[in-house]
Amino acid sequence: MRQRLWTLLLAVVILSGCAAIGFSKYDDLFGKAQPQARISSNKQGLGAQYLTSVKPVLDTRCVVCHGCYDAPCQLKLTSPEGIDRGVSKERVYDGTRLLAQTPSRLLYDAKDTQTWRDKGFTPVLNERVQTEQANLMGSVLYNSLLLKIRNPMQQQGVLGSEYDFSLDRTQSCANMDEFATLAQRQPHGGMPYGLPAISPSEFNTLATWLRSGAKMAHIGPASDFEKKQVSQWEAFLNQSPFKYQLSARYIYEHWYLANIYFPSENTQRPVNFFKLVRSKTPPGQDIELIATRRPYDEPNTSRVYYRLMHERSTILAKTHMPLALNGHKMRRLYEQFIAADYQVDSLPSYQPKIASNPFKAFAQIPVKSKYQFMLDEAELIIKGYIKGPVCRGQVALNVINDHFWVAFVDPDKNSSAQVSELLLTHDDSLALPASDQSNVLPISSWTKYAAHQHDYLKAKTALANKLLAQRNKLTLDLLWQGEGHNKNAALTVFRHFDSATVVKGFIGQQPKTMWVLDYALFERIHYLLVAGFDVYGNIGHQLNTRLYMDFLRLEGEQNFINLLPKQARKHVKQHWYRRSHISLSEFINRNALWGAQTDIEYVTDTPKDELMTKMEQYLAPILSKEYDYQAVPELFNVLNNLPSQAVNLLPQVSFILQQNKEGNGHSAYTLIHHNAHYNISSLLNETGQRAYHEDTATLVPGFIGDYPEAIWYLPNEAHAEQFVSRIQQILNEAQYADLKADFAIRRTHPQFWQYSDLLHKVAKEYRGIEHGVFDYNRLENR
Transmembrane stretches, by residue range (predicted)? Predict the structure, then answer.
């Protein structure tokens, strides 16, 4: 069988060689290109074969690099629509563009393949005469796979400089007329790029599919149980009273990125996911998507309906945010938004100055209702900052530290009439950059943001002092304890240089900084980084978002610092912002923002560490232990105390697989490198603010991060002992390279794809409903 596959492969290679007669003559050879009808039945024939044979190969070998906004050439292979759309030479992530780019979101910004062609996308499938020969010769996808087989990579070792794995590398995005030139100039550019070729049997599967016309099918429909749940939820969200309409709008603007599912007692039933979308059509009719840049933009329809659209694309770890809906959740929403005592006499405008400011748009909804709603799924809301479009790239993420904890102010202490009045009085000061839309001047005045923030914080501090004087104490009971059961009350954020992760619990060693979020701060971060962020916006929009986030981070940190003894606060903050610009130093040292004296009793001379310990104890009943770094085996525990010289050499995220003694399973760990900084308020000079000697690492059980940069495989205890011993002693790049040669699954490993499959299998066991396909775009070449 294997010999037959190789014989077939050789014949295909010879056949494709005939295509060298001239790639500029495809029209003469095979006629004019036009989009083809490719969607077939998912129950039989070629469509069913696509789902059972072709899609698994694409998911495991191609989607690991071609999955989302940051997919090279915008080639998304996660769905039939993405495959048929093809490639574009325009980048979604471009931090230098002066004018906002036209959005190119699948399903939203074009209704058919021809429209994508009109927008400049070129096919990776043959769109000329549909013969077997033309379907192979005229397919960019096929020829990209073939180019890799014709020019195989070296096995083991580090790839040469001809390979560029930087996120902003030059991309050719060739169409078929350009492909011959690409192949000549970049013979190493075959697919999968910078990874081993797919196996002969996998190549045969894809070649057979392409030869027969690349017919595709969507995954099967939702179950009857799920359809019933969809009907119930759409009925709930689309009732006519203004109170329901306003509540549904608020819910949608916070949940639109979530992958919604309906838990069932039948654990054998496949789980389907759904997206909450805006539609021009009511429940019972086909969804007609409202395509706007932001979820709150003018819908241009007399009535917006909130619908649940079946998510039929491959689930990616880097964008997957599961949200379970059930009867309890519906009752909770009813209590928060419908049963609550308030009236809605009219619906708010969609004008940018109103819609971009949640304190104006949703002023009628009580603060407590909104805040409890956000707290119930706090991890999901913060995941929006992490897994939404904003978080790709170092410039977007250098506004946060590499490791910090997040806690929340108790809603009962943050929802008084005085707080509501404060937000209404200062709603203009709380306006966000998105109110200026997606085309703005390159950099708005830092001074303007600072003035608005100072005015608000001054009023907020004065109100807090007044309320505390009435209560006569500032203690840990200010914190939300998750109502005794909700693990969302304590979160940890890890930044991995140009990606990030948020998980439940206070994970890892005590971090340098911590945030305590109140309602107004939590809401503003969401509308800044998620609802109001336009990934297609110009440089001004993106930089203004980054600048504004500086002040929100400072406010979250200040809420934590205000729980410290007054005499210790300035010293802690000055340590966090060493070497900062004088304007920032002046801002953070304004006496009016420091608040009242704490009533927490301190007994050590390290009050910041003591406060974090007290908070851990206070929130202990709801702390998630899923990623407890102290629960790793004793052998590995030393990796939590690596010397900074060793940590400096590590990538940001390393996955470790250790085979168990019986040989029938694996334990998984993530080794996270935390970059230390003197401060993180330098927009374009992060390297200059790095405190390399303060770098630390955390080892946790399971998988944290969606972009593995190194994969280590330890087949037995002896290998594990050697790995741990040697990693503690590495002092230079050569020693790290030797370590990788002995223990890592490099890009060039001859069995890379087998280990990739194992990695995903183990990750699915660990992550369960949270599982999605990892992204290999950041896999290091060292």
Answer: none
